[in-house]
Specification:
heterodimer; A: alpha/beta; Glucose Oxidase, domain 1; Enzyme I, Chain A, domain 2; TIM Barrel; 3 domains; B: alpha+beta; Histidine-containing Protein, Chain: A; five-stranded antiparallel sheet; 5 strands; kinase (chain A); metal-binding (chain A)
């Protein structure tokens, strides 16, 4: 095969943008271990060689620990901290040395056998959480073995700045540690659109393509890779012409973005003067900063799952309080809506699995079975309400009982806080996420008992259409514009307004110009989008007249299919709001040849 | 709770310090709390051992501790033996019982 020839691989676009850089090939390290019998006079040297390998690994991990701590904070660094204790495990080190001495075997073999022996009871344990730890041990042993064998170990954390990461798959914990200055693009063979890695890439604004078949076999380390996160392409060895085409496209896009930057200080107000609370969906403090800089007027969805998943154990109340209050202070006086743990579904609890995770033990259901965990979080959120404008949002509500039960728990928590002398905002608002068809259909009853509703359009679409977006065979059936979804959205908005409360939407629907047109027409009060979309969204809001949008929405809801709805909306957007033509930033179809 | 136990296992010291401890924290002795415990134990010169259901393991080995699979609320026996055992016992028992609050 010609190594210089351009090669185009197709995948699924999960994080928009272009990136170009040398490929960094990340492979799981599976060394070949041979067993060698030592001569007695070789033993002392072999033990020393083993100890030196452990020490060298320890130096590497300590450096890594400091770097992660500096870049990502203490919590993320503790991933490495746990690995260090595995590395320096007294039993492992002494047993390995003993194995070398008594059985006269080489260090690699002795080390691997010792680990197998000592880890046996843990690997066989009934606890899935413990089994999960074996991955950490595997990581550590790879490092030591690579030192012993004198082989180079791939690590996502030791990437040269400006690289494109190419891998079969990337565990979310590795994805969380990615530094956008170093990894400027991601191409994976595995993965779906809603995988946590995809979400993480999007949050960090790293252009990413997943599901790119055979990319790890096609690419050579260091080879130039162009990642097209709009069309879902990975282009190996791009030609000069290709690079020029992408360069001019990038320049065009950047100019467009720059022209929107100036909007950061402007209000998100429609042509006819309706103020929209334009806020951001975030998971990390760093994203909240981006949101604020981009002109967000609040956090419409603060995801808390990662606070849990990053630790692989429930975070303490103090730990959560620190995180929540930091975001609350940063965004003050604007609101921060904290969604309680939405674990389960695709945010898998390590080691736990079930047949139908999206229909299973998820979010509020799981919280009710872990009352201490849930109350601890409510406690932390309420305490943070004393430091800023904090609101509580309950995910996956399907019945009114669930809401009432959560309210009783909140009342208990308030009492306990008062007893313990902790301050909280007595006026804090409580809302539910409308993301099950049941909640949308019962929006009237729910609205009567809360201060706001927020439509989670991704899950609402998935549950309404019975389509798992992560399943490639049915993913194309996922359609936000499906008339059934739109009816539920309209019903929810109307119910909220009948009860005099505000209603928002967080989900990809709110980032789509056509979706925004529709939502503004239906009377939405708040829209929450990813931080990078804020300027664009503001531009769209400022260009739309809600009474005209209402006419469009009314007609759109009468259409029979999602395609008809979209075609109609597109037509109306162009006709009524020609200024927005530019905002439908669609990458013009470059001829990429071949393809499906 | 703790008691001095006559023990002829070790040469030198005639007694070790031993006591039952209830494992606290929401998840039991999992990776992070176990790592914290090991780091605390390593600071002492005394030997540290833990037992659950009659199985004794080295308290300075994270793999050994994890192999106990000590869930929240389970009882373990903490044993320390060496010059700084009294102080070690206090600190390690505290870690075992309240590791949640260590953050």
């Amino acid at each position: 095969m010609n190594r210089k020839a351009e090669k185009i691989l197709r995948g699924i676009p999960v994080s928009a943008g272009f990136a170009r850089g040398p490929a960094f090939l990340y492979r799981a390290y599976l060394p070949e271990l041979s067993e060698r019998v030592l001569k007695p006079q070789e033993v002392a040297e072999e033990v020393k060689r083993f100890q030196a390998a452990v020490e060298a690994t320890e130096r590497d991990l300590r450096r890594l620990y400091l770097r992660v701590k500096r870049d990502m904070g203490r919590d993320f660094a503790e991933f490495i901290g746990v690995q260090l204790t595995f590395l320096t495990d007294e039993d492992v080190i002494s047993h390995t040395a003993q194995f070398i001495r008594e059985r006269l075997r080489n260090a690699e073999f002795a080390y691997a056998e010792t680990l197998k022996h000592l880890a046996g009871p843990v690997a066989r344990s009934a606890s899935p959480m413990l089994k999960e730890r074996m991955l950490d041990l595997g990581d550590v042993s790879s490092r030591v073995l690579s030192k012993l064998l004198g082989e180079e170990l791939p690590s996502v954390h030791e990437v040269a700045p400006g690289s494109v990461l190419v891998a079969h798959d990337l565990p979310p914990s590795d994805a969380a540690l990615l530094d956008p200055a170093k990894v400027i693009g991601i191409v994976l063979e595995a993965g779906g659109k809603t995988s946590h890695t995809a979400i993480m890439a999007k949050a960090k604004e790293i252009p990413a393509v997943v599901g790119a078949d055979a990319v790890t076999r096609e690419v050579h380390p260091g080879q130039t890779v162009l990642v097209d996160g709009y069309r879902g392409l990975a282009i190996l060895n791009p030609t000069q012409n290709r690079l020029q085409a992408y360069d001019s496209e990038t320049a065009r896009y950047l100019r467009h973005r720059e022209s929107l930057r100036v909007l950061a200080e402007e209000e998100a107000v429609t042509l006819d003067g309706k103020m929209i609370d334009l806020s951001a969906n975030v998971e990390f403090l760093i994203e909240a900063r981006t949101a604020r800089e981009n002109g967000a007027r609040g956090i419409g969805l603060f995801r808390t799952e990662y606070i849990y998943l990053a630790r692989r154990r429930p975070p303490t109340c103090e730990e959560q309080y620190r995180i929540y209050s930091e975001v609350a202070r940063l965004m003050k006086p604007y609101p921060v809506i904290i969604r309680t743990f939405d674990l389960g579904g695709d945010k898998v609890i390590p080691g736990y699995s079930e047949a139908n995770p999206f229909l299973g033990w998820r979010a509020i259901r799981m919280c009710f079975d872990n009352l201490e965990l849930f109350k601890n979080q409510l406690r932390a959120i309420l305490r943070a309400s004393a430091t800023g404008n904090v609101k509580v949002m309950l995910p996956m509500i399907a019945t009114v009982e669930e809401l009432r039960r959560a309210k009783l728990l909140l009342a208990e928590v308030k009492k306990e806080l008062a007893r313990d002398g902790h301050a909280y905002d007595e006026q804090f608002e409580l809302g539910v996420m409308v993301e099950t068809p049941a909640a949308a259909l019962l929006a009237d009853r729910l609205a009567a008992e809360v201060q706001f509703l927020s439509i989670g359009s991704n899950d609402l679409t998935q549950y309404t259409l019975a389509v798992d977006r992560g399943n490639e065979r049915v993913a194309r059936l996922f359609d936000h514009f499906h008339p059934a979804v739109l009816q539920l959205i309209r019903q929810t908005i109307e119910a909220a307004h009948r009860h005099g409360i505000w209603v928002g939407l967080c989900g990809e629907f709110g980032s789509d110009p056509l979706g925004m047109l529709l939502l503004l027409g239906l009377g939405i009060d708040e829209i929450s989008v990813i931080p990078g979309m804020i300027p664009e969204a503001k531009n769209i809001i400022r260009s739309i007249d809600t009474s005209e949008a209402a006419l469009v929405a009314k007609a759109a809801l009468e259409k029979s299919t999602g395609v008809e709805v979209q075609r109609f909306l597109r037509h109306e957007l162009h006709r009524r709001f020609p200024k927005l033509e530019k905002s439908l930033f669609e990458v013009k179809g470059q001829d990429v040849g071949g393809g499906k | 709770m703790e008691s001095r136990v006559r023990d002829t296992r070790e040469s030198g010291a005639l007694t070790v310090l031993r006591g039952k401890v209830k494992v606290g924290g929401p998840v039991g002795l999992h990776a992070r709390p176990a790592a914290e415990l090991v780091r605390a134990a390593e600071k002492f010169r005394c030997k540290v051992r833990l037992a659950k259901d009659g199985i004794w393991v080295n308290g300075k080995s994270i793999l050994a501790i994890l192999s106990l699979a000590a869930e929240m609320g389970s009882e373990v026996i903490l044993e320390v033996d060496g010059p700084d055992e009294a102080q070690a016992f206090e600190i390690l028992r505290n870690k075992l019982e309240h590791h949640e609050s260590q953050g």
